[in-house]
Amino acid sequence: TPAEIEARAADSGAGATAAFRSKLQTEGLEDVTPERVNTLAREVLTAVHDTIRRHKVTYAEYDALKAWLIQVGEDGEWPLFLDVWVEHVVEQVANENRHGTKGSIEGPYYVPDAPGLPADATLPMREDESGTPLLFQGQVTTVGGDPIAGAKVEIWQADALGFYSQYAPGLPEWNLRGTVTADEQGGYRIHTLQPAPYQIPTDGSCGKLIAAAGWHAWRPAHLHLKVSAPGHQLITTQLYFPGDAHNEDDIASAVKPELMLDIVPAESGEGEQTTYNFVLDPA
Ligand code: MBD
Ligand code: FE
């Protein structure tokens, strides 16, 4: 119903803004020098000016932009907008010199300090949680191939309907979120469920942009991960499922061939399983 859809945009957009504000409270912001602000702000504005001249932008279009920008803030959708359409390039630049596992964007729905779980773990989920069972296993190593004992594998994902806990109403607080500690060999076996593809809420301002431009609103199904260990660089990434209709046209441009899972029938006979190994760069 329209009421449910409205609740979704409000929860996810405003929730992501609240989460970002609370991160700022604990971590603060690093200073950006006046030289950098001068260069970056001037170049972005020049790109806007060039676009206006090239396309002879009208006052009607200028006012539509102004109204939409105001609405993005009121909806709390700046984190969603930036993570969907900008973060992938920031991630590309940030991680271009790494040799280990490829990174991907964090997106708006990470929550730190998810419940701690052993190396062989089942993610927190409802008793009647629906979806295809998925065993996600692998090993964390150094670039040289040495196991990293006790590496931390943080995982968060949407449920089988595409909803993230803490950003959709009615889900248990830590549903499908966990902080797994790998074993002595850097190994982990995580029992979870296959996530559904994710649709950007259609009723908020990001949804309005998508509709007005005639785009689609989908991200392919994905698992989110942060893998870390002392003495190594933390990697934030995502893993994807072969055959998803939106692997080729992710609205957030965050799919990489190296991040595609190899899914096979589970040895247990129930659902699917996949092995993905993480390689951490030295700090
Ligand atoms: C998501 O689930 C996501 O991962 C990103 C990057 C943006 C919106 C929703
Ligand atoms: Fe996501």
UniProtKB/TrEMBL annotation:
<comment type="similarity">
    <text>Belongs to the intradiol ring-cleavage dioxygenase family.</text>
</comment>
<keyword id="KW-0560">Oxidoreductase</keyword>
<keyword id="KW-0223">Dioxygenase</keyword>
<dbReference type="InterPro" id="IPR000627">
    <property type="entry name" value="Intradiol_dOase_C"/>
</dbReference>
<keyword id="KW-0408">Iron</keyword>
<dbReference type="InterPro" id="IPR015889">
    <property type="entry name" value="Intradiol_dOase_core"/>
</dbReference>
<feature type="domain" description="Intradiol ring-cleavage dioxygenases">
    <location>
        <begin position="136"/>
        <end position="164"/>
    </location>
</feature>
<dbReference type="InterPro" id="IPR007535">
    <property type="entry name" value="Catechol_dOase_N"/>
</dbReference>
<dbReference type="InterPro" id="IPR012800">
    <property type="entry name" value="Cchol_dOase_actb"/>
</dbReference>
<dbReference type="Pfam" id="PF00775">
    <property type="entry name" value="Dioxygenase_C"/>
</dbReference>
<dbReference type="GO" id="GO:0008199">
    <property type="term" value="F:ferric iron binding"/>
</dbReference>
<keyword id="KW-0479">Metal-binding</keyword>
<dbReference type="GO" id="GO:0018576">
    <property type="term" value="F:catechol 1,2-dioxygenase activity"/>
</dbReference>
<protein>
    <submittedName>
        <fullName>Catechol 1,2-dioxygenase</fullName>
        <ecNumber>1.13.11.1</ecNumber>
    </submittedName>
</protein>
<dbReference type="GO" id="GO:0009712">
    <property type="term" value="P:catechol-containing compound metabolic process"/>
</dbReference>
<dbReference type="InterPro" id="IPR050770">
    <property type="entry name" value="Intradiol_RC_Dioxygenase"/>
</dbReference>
<dbReference type="InterPro" id="IPR043029">
    <property type="entry name" value="1_2-CTD_multi_dom"/>
</dbReference>
<dbReference type="Pfam" id="PF04444">
    <property type="entry name" value="Dioxygenase_N"/>
</dbReference>
